[in-house]
């Protein structure tokens, strides 16, 4: 029997520098010959690496794709602050970083590790009164976004270089969703009194989706294919609950099952290995949160 969802799932793209996330979506619409393409979480044009994209019914799953953690490799330049907190902005100030030792930088990084309050960059995609911050900045508005809590579980230096009067540090970061790496660069520079900004950024993981899953746009152009089917995406993103054929049929119709003491959302997987739905206990019901395989398909 033909699977109606054979073309639905996720593509993990290794985004090249210089493209917006929307550019990637537009390219994939052409590659997969469908308008039903969407991305989960914007990646700056300067950045490369993991961009999770939904194809066909995979776009419906994106709303339930809760990536609580992300990982990055980046290069921070100490000795200059910019308007955008990265290399694409105009230089605001330059203070030689020759006096900043590697240990000074490590101490500054340690202070930015753990549960911290972080002020997002003014050119971020955060909406303020319905309009994105970067759009307000480009319109000439002077804005400052309030600090908010984030978690930086890992902020480590991999290498140091000292070109001219700067200190460049290659770092690796594991953090909660919503953390801005360019803000870490800015705050590290400010704490050391020399200013700082990001010169390179590569996202290496979004939740359970890794660079190992990623395909380049050239690879996809040559051979259009999913990184993960919708079945694989649900099972990787959530704990699996195996259900019977009868239970799977009920969930496909949006019906609820008897509760069984589950904590949080699970992927209900039928005996044939197909992920039927995301389910969660609500009171005395084990109810569907998202039906991946509705009975009408």
TrEMBL record:
<dbReference type="GO" id="GO:0031119">
    <property type="term" value="P:tRNA pseudouridine synthesis"/>
</dbReference>
<feature type="domain" description="tRNA pseudouridylate synthase B C-terminal">
    <location>
        <begin position="182"/>
        <end position="222"/>
    </location>
</feature>
<keyword id="KW-0413">Isomerase</keyword>
<dbReference type="GO" id="GO:0003723">
    <property type="term" value="F:RNA binding"/>
</dbReference>
<dbReference type="InterPro" id="IPR015225">
    <property type="entry name" value="tRNA_psdUridine_synth_fam2_C"/>
</dbReference>
<dbReference type="Pfam" id="PF16198">
    <property type="entry name" value="TruB_C_2"/>
</dbReference>
<dbReference type="InterPro" id="IPR002501">
    <property type="entry name" value="PsdUridine_synth_N"/>
</dbReference>
<feature type="active site" description="Nucleophile">
    <location>
        <position position="44"/>
    </location>
</feature>
<dbReference type="Pfam" id="PF01509">
    <property type="entry name" value="TruB_N"/>
</dbReference>
<protein>
    <recommendedName>
        <fullName>tRNA pseudouridine synthase B</fullName>
        <ecNumber>5.4.99.25</ecNumber>
    </recommendedName>
</protein>
<feature type="domain" description="tRNA pseudouridine synthase II TruB subfamily 2 C-terminal">
    <location>
        <begin position="238"/>
        <end position="293"/>
    </location>
</feature>
<dbReference type="InterPro" id="IPR015947">
    <property type="entry name" value="PUA-like_sf"/>
</dbReference>
<dbReference type="InterPro" id="IPR032819">
    <property type="entry name" value="TruB_C"/>
</dbReference>
<feature type="domain" description="Pseudouridine synthase II N-terminal">
    <location>
        <begin position="29"/>
        <end position="181"/>
    </location>
</feature>
<dbReference type="InterPro" id="IPR020103">
    <property type="entry name" value="PsdUridine_synth_cat_dom_sf"/>
</dbReference>
<dbReference type="Pfam" id="PF09142">
    <property type="entry name" value="TruB_C"/>
</dbReference>
<dbReference type="InterPro" id="IPR014780">
    <property type="entry name" value="tRNA_psdUridine_synth_TruB"/>
</dbReference>
<dbReference type="InterPro" id="IPR036974">
    <property type="entry name" value="PUA_sf"/>
</dbReference>
<comment type="similarity">
    <text>Belongs to the pseudouridine synthase TruB family. Type 1 subfamily.</text>
</comment>
<keyword id="KW-0819">tRNA processing</keyword>
<comment type="function">
    <text>Responsible for synthesis of pseudouridine from uracil-55 in the psi GC loop of transfer RNAs.</text>
</comment>
<dbReference type="GO" id="GO:1990481">
    <property type="term" value="P:mRNA pseudouridine synthesis"/>
</dbReference>
<dbReference type="GO" id="GO:0160148">
    <property type="term" value="F:tRNA pseudouridine(55) synthase activity"/>
</dbReference>
